[in-house]
Design goal:
alpha+beta, OB fold (Dihydrolipoamide Acetyltransferase, E2P), 2 domains, 6-stranded mixed β-sheet, 5-stranded antiparallel β-sheet, 8 helices, elongated
């Protein structure tokens, strides 16, 4: 049986449907992420799980028990917010002890569990400090320790890394993974940052306009998105409208708008004349220099318009002869190495017949 079950949950604010008939389950010990753009309903959903808001329809169950009518303070759930929500007049130890004291735990137990929580987040030497004496990452770890100290069945994290700078966010991602693995508590994590979701999660629910578009493991979400929204939201991708010309057993022929005829991997259940989209990741294609002979099933000609160098890789954007743009991602052989093609120079993009995928409308 799943630890957490969300069954057909709906939440309306007047005419706005913020969460629209959402269902999913989360297993014990899982790191589960709600991912989506701002306003998609993920935080509203998290608040209903926590008990801060009530659904207009559906149910939230924990260990098979409906939480309807159970106030937030009586749910074995804790929420960590982006703002940390630490008490500025309390020391680190006092902030962490607060939930235990409110629960009436004996002093000896409070001291022992606070010490354990501080050790888990590597802040034992900061027990007597105040929040304003800590870095952003340290304050985040205090908030996590306070969430873990009363040993909740479920820890909810609402954009917990959103206020950190890029380098600290990466460091905290490693710490979150390590902490979740060590304590074994189930995490439900809310973020709009796809890189965080992909690197941290066991499974991800991609949300859009109040609904769940797809739930899957990170690698499958990236490699096999179910529709245009998921394909476009997760990572970078080239997307073109297309029509099926011929559906074979191993490959199929597509007429791709502005690209022409393309060979792509076969997909069961398709028929000639069916419309959809052809999608291919920038790292699946190869950049060919002018005059280089064709080596792969698919090739389009164009001219390099711009490039983005980010150390280990460079993303090239080509303007095709038809006026469309196409991105290719190439690894750099060495830091500061010469570009494969310069801006304004002619070039071609090639890819194999087993790359890319067809997405239905």
């Amino acid at each position: 049986m799943s630890l957490l079950e969300v069954r057909g949950v709906t939440r309306r604010f007047g005419s706005l449907v913020a969460v629209d008939d959402v269902s999913f389950s989360v297993g014990a010990g899982e790191f589960f992420t709600l991912l989506g753009p701002s306003g998609c309903g993920k935080t509203v959903l998290l608040r209903m799980i926590a008990g801060f808001d009530l659904p207009d329809g559906g149910a939230v169950l924990l260990d098979g028990r409906d939480l309807a009518g159970t106030p937030p303070e009586r749910r074995p759930i804790h929420t960590v917010f982006q703002s940390y929500a630490l008490f500025p007049h309390m020391t680190v130890a006092a902030n962490i002890a607060f939930p235990l004291q409110m629960a009436g735990r004996p002093r000896e137990e409070v001291e022992r569990r606070v010490a354990e929580a501080l050790d888990q987040v590597h802040l034992s030497d900061k027990a007597r400090r105040y929040p304003n004496e800590l870095s952003g990452g340290q304050r985040q770890r205090v908030a996590l320790a306070r969430g873990l100290v009363n040993r909740p069945r479920l820890l909810l994290l609402d954009e917990p890394l959103g206020a950190l700078d890029a380098k600290l966010r990466v460091q905290m991602q490693y710490e979150l993974m390590s902490l979740q693995r060590d304590v074994g508590i189930t995490f439900v994590f809310v973020t709009h940052a796809q890189d965080e979701a992909l690197s941290l999660s066991h499974r991800i629910a991609v949300m859009n306009a109040g609904r769940v578009e797809q739930i899957d493991e990170p690698a499958r979400l990236y490699g096999y998105p179910h529709n245009r929204f998921v394909a476009g939201f997760i990572g970078s991708i080239n997307l073109f409208d297309c029509e099926v010309l011929e559906a074979g057993d191993a490959t199929m022929r597509l007429r791709v708008d502005r690209l022409g005829e393309v060979q792509a991997p076969a997909r069961a259940g398709l028929r000639a004349g069916q419309r959809g989209a052809f999608a291919i990741r920038p790292e699946q294609v190869h950049l060919a220099a002018p005059g280089e002979p064709r080596r792969r099933a698919n090739r389009v000609e164009g001219r390099a318009r711009e490039f983005l160098y980010v150390g280990e890789v460079t993303t090239y954007v080509l303007e095709l002869e038809c006026g469309a743009t196409f991105s290719a991602l190439l690894p750099n052989a060495a830091p500061g190495s010469a570009r494969a093609v310069g801006a304004g120079e002619p070039a071609a993009i090639e890819w194999d017949a087993d790359c890319g995928l067809f997405l239905e409308q």
